[in-house]
Each structure stands twice: as structure tokens, then as C-alpha cells.
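Hello Y.,

Per our agreement to keep a running log of every chain we model this quarter, I'm adding this entry. I've kept the format consistent with earlier entries: sequence first, then predicted structure.
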Amino acid sequence: MENVVVLIVGARPAGLATAACLSKFSIPYVIVERQDCSASPWCKRAYDRLKLHLAKEFCELPHMSYLVDAPTYIPKNTFVKYLDDYIERFNIQPKYLTNVESSTYDNDKKRWSIVAHDMTTCTIVKFRAKFLVVASGENSAENIPMILGLQSFPGDVIHFSSYKSGKSYSGKNVLVVGSGNSGMEISYDLATHGANTSIVIRSPIHVMTKELIRLGMTLAQRLPLNLVDNLLVMSAKFIFGDLSRQGITRPKMGPMTLKSATGKSAVIDVGTVGLIKKGIIKVQGGISKIMGNIVEFQCSKEISFDAIVFATRYKSTANIWLKDGESMLNGNGLPIKEYPNHWKGENGLYCAGLARRGLASIAVDAKNIANDIIYVMGSGSS
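Predicted structure for the entry above:
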């Protein structure tokens, strides 16, 4: 049994940021990670052309800026290098290949009891911690929806976490399911590599340029969101025109308000809309069922495909191993409380990076957690 002050579960950006903030207060901690590297989604699961969708000033972790000559929109490899430098700067030493299997709160000892599996030595390790930080990420497990007949599809079926490039799909009919940033960008990548690409767009989405989102996030620090939303929507209409003919409608709620209220981001166009307007990328509605290689849509249209890429959300797995966490997380492993009060539970339990608000929210979570822990320790609470 290893006694620790703070145990951080997850060495992704949220866990690294929390570790750095704790270091600033000289609070001892242990950070465990089930993968063999930090930020594994970026190292292993990100597609080749991926860049951070927000400008770099909104994507910094606490206490370390990007290099002055870094591009405004950080490429995947540059971000991974930034994380490596961050680990070195704050001397963060994750225990890799350590998978937490259970965590319960001991009311008598007023401590968290954590059981983990050290996959390197094939042994069980146990921790007792005063504070427990869930930083394992909202993107812990792939989430492919249940679709009638999907198991009968003979072609490739992948989650976008396994997608790297459209090179191998040239000349094939490919369906992308999901119209968030990843789905729209993967559709563009497929089309530019010669795939006959269709994308399922079921819900209204805001389509913006990266410059508009940067402007909106800057103005939102000083102006009411409704004013910022009006400016962004008006500008987007001028840039993209009426997209309803292409099957793309806008939500009633403005992009900044929608993000604040639900965590749902606007889609930042990388050229996909232009290809949709030209008919190179075809927009489809919801899927009704799949019959072999034929996909039937809710409008009764039937199309043959060679591959399906699910650009659907991941899901959190924290609720599988975290027991006694009902004060903070729901059955889906996500915070019960609304942002920005989502990060704290009871009995020294915290979460970082589960608010669906990206790196900017991660930085705030990490600072809040470290400040709260130093306050609790200073007040002498048990």
C-alpha cells in the first residue's frame, strides 16, 4: 500500500496540467496512466492532418506558453512535442502501463483506496490517497452507435480514432457518420484523396471559419454572448450563404451560447463546405438500417458503400472503476454539475477535462483543483 497525498488518474493533458499546478504549490502527487505514453489519443489515435481547431492562445496548459514562432493553429506533432516539453519542464513522472481497476472511499480512514494493475510486472499495486483526481478523459473508449444490420456490412467499419489518411480509400464509396469537426475534416480528407464521400448530417450545426471562432472567443471575454453570437452568425451567413439546400441548417441557439450551455462546438470549416456545394461530398440524413453493403437512409434512399467511418464521440469509462463517485459523475462517467462547477465532488474527489470544453477548460479545471487542495490542506480539514 503506497500512501500518497494526491493520486491523478490519467496522464493526458488534463492530468499533466493538474500535476503542474500541484507542483507550483509543492503538493506531492502520483500520476498513473494505463497507456505506455502520455496523451495517447494524440500520439496514437489522431489522423494525420489534424490541427488544434482553436488558436494557440486558447490551447495552452497552465504555466507554459507555446514557443513564439509556433503557428497560430498547432499541428498534431507540434502539440505532442509541446506536451513532451511540458512533462520535462515540470518533472512529471507518470507511472505508465498502470491501469486503475477500482477506487473506493474509506469513511473510517477518510482516504481513497485505489487498486491498480501494473501491466509491466503483472502485479497489483494499491494506493491510499487523501485526494483523487479523475483525469482519464472523456475520450477513453470508442463509441459506435447501434445501427440495425451494421454487423452484416462486409466492408471496413472503423471509428475515427483508427483513421489516419484517405490514401487507402481512393476510388471507394465511403460514408462518414458524424458531422462534428472530426467528421467534417475526415470527409474533406477522404474527398481530396479521391474517395466518393458521403457524410451523415442529422442535426443542425454552426459552420464557422477558424478566424471567426478566434474572434468570437476573444470578444466573449468582454461582450455579452448574444451580441457575439449575432456577429458570428451574420458573418457566417455572408461567408457561406444559405446551406439549407445542401442539408445543413443552423441551431436556434448561437454558437457561443450553445458552447457555453451544452459544450457542443461549432464546426470549423477546412474546405468541406466548398466540396459539399460542388457535390463532391454528398450530405445524407439519418440511417434507417444496413443490409449488407447497402445503407438505407431515413428518406428511403439506398446507397452502396465500401467503408463506413464513425466520427462519433468517445465515451468516458471513469464510472466503471470509480466507486463512491456519485457526488460528481453520472452513469456515463461525466460530471453531474453544470460547467463551471463540475470539477469538484465530495471527500476530496475531483475531475479535470470532463467538461467537453477542450484545452481551455482543462487549464481552468487544473488551477481550480490545485487551489482547492491547498485550501483544504491549509484549513486542516481531515
